[in-house]
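Narrative summary of target 7.
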Amino acid sequence: MADNNPVRSKRDQHLERLRKKYPDRKFEDDEEIFGAISDDYDQFEQENTTMRDREKAFSEMFTSDPRSARMMMEWKNGNDPAISLLRIYGDDILEACNDPDKQEAIKEANKEFATKVAKEKEYEELYDKNIEESLAGLEQMATEEGLSDEDIDKAMEYLVSICRDMMLGKFTRETVRMMLNAINHDTDVANAQEEGEVAGRNSKIVEQMRKSKKGDGIQNLNGRNGTPRQNPDKTKSVFDLAREAD
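Modeled conformation, tokenized:
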């Protein structure tokens, strides 16, 4: 039996992968398609470079001291890292503790550790305080602007994804473009408002000029001795009409 499955081109296959990865984008032109491909390729290259650097660092560490590889293997196998550390580096630790030249370094390391623990506790308390205030603010925002829980969740998910990308050194065109639109929003609104006001004044000027021309050449019977009354708008300049239109 003949195979009824149509043979798809490489372009169609790649478009299908892009649309699965970016369901909110249509990819209707080559600029958008190749832009997404370029972003994905840059991300792949960056992640690949990071992975190679990490593997190189581990390889150099294991080569410089084979015991470090044994330590990592015990940790991977579920052994207590502190116990494994003593088991593998016990002699070195004991020697360091009894070495007057290293006692000061040990003291500084212990001080640094204590400072780090205190700082982490401070950050944790600050986080708990901020998250409580943030959630209350979002609740109030949802009530005032008629937003649903789904709206807030979607916005927060997108914000978290941006923060996660930033921590990995990833800045996409879509994110930068969104930031630019947010930065320029007030200016764009002000420009649109000014354009609307100018268009409104121009419309009034045209309307006044049209009315004034409509009365030209028609004798006004209310004039003295049958003399037509002069149209007051006829002698007015465009600038006079503009001032009256304000």
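The radius of gyration is 37 Å.
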